[in-house]
């Protein structure tokens, strides 16, 4: 799962999101927090992003947990790729591949997003995106200017690891 926030108390939003996810599934690992330049959409504040690994092989459960976490933070969907209190995206579930408008797996844009790949490497250096390759290789292929806009801030305060 990829968590992102660029409005209000960004750290608090991420921590609250993780707490909700943990009510659904065991959280096996949480990456460091990264500050990242916004990708796409309108001009908006910088994001904080992290990646969490949940103990599930069920895409529907992962999606349900993600939506609950977003709703708990009063997420408003005004603009595609616009600013948000908390965005939780299911990136990959147990190697599944599916093309469903509700949830496409793996996440179709993860392979080009340093704000997903960089924290993901923290928690799983051998991670692979089904059909796309190793996360480490995909990250190495990205424009270094974009990757440089990803700044590591360290662990999320108040969250166990
Ligand atoms: N999420 C988006 C759009 N753009 N940019 C960054 N840096 N981080 C995000 O999480 C993000 C984004 C849509 O979900
Ligand atoms: Mg997103
Ligand atoms: Mg989303």
Mind explaining what this structure looks like?
With 161 residues, the chain is an alpha+beta fold. It has five helices and ten strands, in the order E-H-E-E-E-H-E-E-E-H-E-E-H-H-E. The chain has helices at residues 10-24, 59-72, 114-123, 135-141, 144-148; strands at residues 2-5, 27-30, 33-36, 47-54, 87-89, 98-100, 103-105, 128-129, 133-134, 150-154. The strands form three sheets. Strands 1, 2, 3, 4, 5 and 10 form a six-stranded antiparallel beta sheet that branches. It has a two-stranded antiparallel sheet with strand order 6-7. The longest helix has 15 residues, at 10-24. It is globular, with a radius of gyration of 14 Å. One magnesium ion (MG) binds next to strand 5.
Question: What's the topology here?
Answer:
Layout: E1 2-5, H1 10-24, E2 27-30, E3 33-36, E4 47-54, H2 59-72, E5 87-89, E6 98-100, E7 103-105, H3 114-123, E8 128-129, E9 133-134, H4 135-141, H5 144-148, E10 150-154
Antiparallel strand pairs: 1-4, 1-5, 2-4, 3-4, 3-10, 6-7, 8-9
Helix pairs in contact: 1-2, 3-4
One magnesium ion (MG) is lined by residues 87, 89.
């Amino acid at each position: 799962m990829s968590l992102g926030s660029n409005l209000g108390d960004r750290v608090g939003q991420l921590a609250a999101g993780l707490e909700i996810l943990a009510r659904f599934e065991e959280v096996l690992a949480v990456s460091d927090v990264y500050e990242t330049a916004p990708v796409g959409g309108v001009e908006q504040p910088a994001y904080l992003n992290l990646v969490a690994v949940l103990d599930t092989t069920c895409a529907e459960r992962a999606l349900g947990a993600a939506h609950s976490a977003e709703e708990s933070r009063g997420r408003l969907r005004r603009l595609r790729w616009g600013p948000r209190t908390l965005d939780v995206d299911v990136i990959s579930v147990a190697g599944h591949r599916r093309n469903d408008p509700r949830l496409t797996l793996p996440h179709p844009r993860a392979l080009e997003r340093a704000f997903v790949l960089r924290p993901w490497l923290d928690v799983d250096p051998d991670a692979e995106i089904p059909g796309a390759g190793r996360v480490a290789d995909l990250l190495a292929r990205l424009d270094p200017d974009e990757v440089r806009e990803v700044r590591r801030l360290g662990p999320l305060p108040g969250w166990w690891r």
